[in-house]
Amino acid sequence: MGFLDALLGRTKPVPPNLDALFALPSAAITLQAATDFAPTGTGSVCFRAAEGKAFSDIEKDVRDLLSMGDNATPVEVSQDSYGFTWLVCHHSPDDIEGLVTDLHAVNSSLENAGFGPQLLCTILSFRDGAGHPLGLVYLYKRGTFYPFAPQAGERRDNAIELQVRGALGDDLKIESDLGRWFPVWGAPGL
Prior knowledge:
Elements: H1 3-7, H2 24-34, E1 38-47, H3 53-67, E2 75-79, E3 85-90, H4 96-115, E4 119-127, E5 133-139, E6 144-148, E7 150-151, E8 155-156, H5 158-168
Helix pairs in contact: 3-4
């Protein structure tokens, strides 16, 4: 960042730290102890699919990577109404480490192939005893997390989101700008 950028108030974007995803298993334990939310075993990566053979090849490689071996992960690919592609991974609820490893592999594969700018977010899903959903959302371009607690009718439970923020503040780098806590309505797996 140059002098003129500093003078004009421009800031350099925070580089993403995909290894921050590995803090999710311990954060899940903290979340479960502080609230009634437990992991569902579902996580998703959201990205804007690029046109062309290179992107379709890397998408196929990622799906093949997750679908092979003894610990094959069921993978679903869907597209939302905004044109974003969602790759959803399923594990047993007690295998959050394996799920996070798979989500990291998806993000890393896309980033290493030069498609990092197409990555939007990664979501790890939780539910409480009454079945209410909660997502811990990792914003790729900000390198931060935030909770998203959707309710029926495209409303959100702000009280739960703030409670989760307080519970996980020591475990995850929580997005400080509440205006960036974007709703991810209809996110697969949430």
